[in-house]
Amino acid sequence: MNMAIVKVWITDDCTACNLCVDTCPEVFELPDDIAEVIEGADFSEYEDEIIEAAESCPVEAIQYEEEED
């Protein structure tokens, strides 16, 4: 059984370090002083990058939810 990322969000802990954008610009953007998830981003195509960004985030601000597919 595979897990699929169905939701991604950034908490208020974000320090705008830009690491998530460097890791996965297809899903994350930094328009102001907190990163955002790009509306309509295809999580299924970038799951490895989303997980890498979440694990690399220095303040653990990137959260995601998985469901069995």
Describe the 3D structure:
There is one protein chain. The protein has helices at 19-23, 47-56; strands spanning 3-10, 28-29, 36-37, 62-68. With 69 residues, the chain is α+β, with helices and mostly antiparallel strands. It has one domain (3-68): 2-Layer Sandwich (Alpha-Beta Plaits), CATH 3.30.70. It has a two-stranded antiparallel ribbon. Strands 2-3 form a two-stranded antiparallel sheet. The mean pLDDT is 95.
Topology:
Blueprint: E1 3-10, H1 19-23, E2 28-29, E3 36-37, H2 47-56, E4 62-68
Antiparallel strand pairs: 1-4, 2-3
What are the key terms here?
28% strand; globular; 69 residues; alpha+beta; two-stranded antiparallel sheet; Alpha-Beta Plaits; single chain
Count of the separate structural domains: 1
Structural class: alpha+beta
CATH class: Alpha Beta
Question: CATH topology, anyone?
Answer: Alpha-Beta Plaits
Describe the main β-sheet briefly: 2 strands, antiparallel
Number of helical elements: 2
Mean pLDDT: 95
Lateral arrangement of strands in the main beta sheet: 1-4
Give the overall shape: globular
H-E string: EHEEHE
Number of strands: 4
CATH second-level architecture: 2-Layer Sandwich
Q: Uncertain regions: pLDDT < 50 for 5+ in a row?
A: none
- Helix content range: 10-25%
Strand content: 25-35%
Terminal Cα span:
7 Å
Measured on Cα atoms, how large is the radius of gyration?
Answer: 11 Å
